[in-house]
Design goal:
Blueprint (H helix, E strand, L loop, with lengths): L2 E7 L3 E2 L2 E2 L7 E7 L5 E7 L13 H9 L3 E6 L9 H15 L1 H4 L1 E11 L1 H12 L3 H4 L6 H4 L3 E5 L12 H8 L23 E6 L8 H12 L4 E6 L28 H10 L1
Parallel strand pairs: 5-6, 5-7, 7-8, 8-9, 9-10
Antiparallel strand pairs: 1-4, 2-3, 4-6
Helix pairs in contact: 2-4
Length: 272
């Protein structure tokens, strides 16, 4: 089944506050050509909040299409920027999908935000802050319009704890004028009972974003009694994407047979 692609620009000026960013945010949709309502997976690629990984963008969207889901890829604000620019972009994108659900044949009760690495931090940030003053002061939407129904977090950046964090991502998401807000973006501290059900996976051997990021988050989800599924694979470097030959790096790395099952595990979790 073919997917129809469309690029949709998003605002860069929220509530009169212009955030600095090195690109204009936009959403690229991959909608299946069908009249049947389907879930939509909104993908936030990684890249340390200073670039976007193409390996975690269109190939993942097409994989979601192959699994019978609509998909979209968000190109969000990047450094140099001011917090919460990227978070506003994602909230705007979720609201856009929800407002167009009928037109796009999207099941409005099944909008899943997926994030890889720093994109996982962005996705989890919306899970934490969808009803907070951080967004309500800047966006014209009701909180429930921007809330994801579920999250898919792939080797996510989570903590700002200097022992385990990806320091570049934390510095970039905050911006140079907000470096004192580290606790705000240490997301394991902000999970409550409104957080969406979550599927997350990581590898034990990830040296770039240590496994502790997902361990801390799984613990926070459990404490808040949020439904979740967590897979820790023994082998695999950071940035695996689909972990297949299709999304391997030019040197052939980022292929891991053990990890390439994650889309099937995610689909099974979603459909249970």
């Amino acid at each position: 089944m073919k997917s129809m692609k469309e690029k949709i620009d998003l605002p860069l000026n929220y509530a009169g506050k212009l955030f600095n960013s090195n690109q204009k945010p936009f959403l690229k949709t991959y909608l299946l050509d069908s009249q049947k309502e389907r879930p939509l997976v909104l993908i936030c690629p990684g890249g340390g909040y200073n670039h976007l990984s193409t390996r975690e963008a269109e190939p993942v969207a097409l994989q979601m299409n192959a699994m019978d889901f609509h998909a979209a890829v968000l190109s969000y604000s990047l450094a140099p920027m001011e917090f919460p620019a990227a978070l506003c972009d994602l909230a705007e994108a979720v609201s856009l999908v929800r407002r167009n659900a009928k037109k796009w044949n999207v099941d409005s009760s099944s909008i899943i935000v997926a994030g890889f690495s720093a994109g996982g931090h962005l996705a989890a940030s919306l899970g934490c802050f969808w009803r907070s003053g951080i967004l309500q002061d800047l966006l014209p939407y009701k909180p429930e319009e921007t809330r994801p129904n579920r999250l898919l977090l792939c080797y996510p950046v989570i903590t700002a704890d200097r022992r385990f964090c990806h320091e570049e991502s934390i510095a970039n998401v905050l911006g140079k004028n907000n470096l004192d807000l580290r606790d705000v973006v240490s997301l394991e501290l902000h999970v409550d009972d409104s957080f969406p059900p979550t599927f997350l996976w990581h590898t034990v051997s990830d040296e770039t974003v240590p496994l502790e990021n997902s361990l801390f988050f799984a613990s926070a989800l459990r404490e808040a009694k949020i439904p979740f599924e967590f897979h820790a694979f023994e082998r695999g470097s950071h940035g695996l994407a689909l972990a297949t030959k299709e999304t391997a790096k030019s040197d052939g790395s980022c292929q891991e047979k053990e990890c390439c099952v994650w889309p099937a595990l995610f689909r099974n979790w979603l459909e249970c």
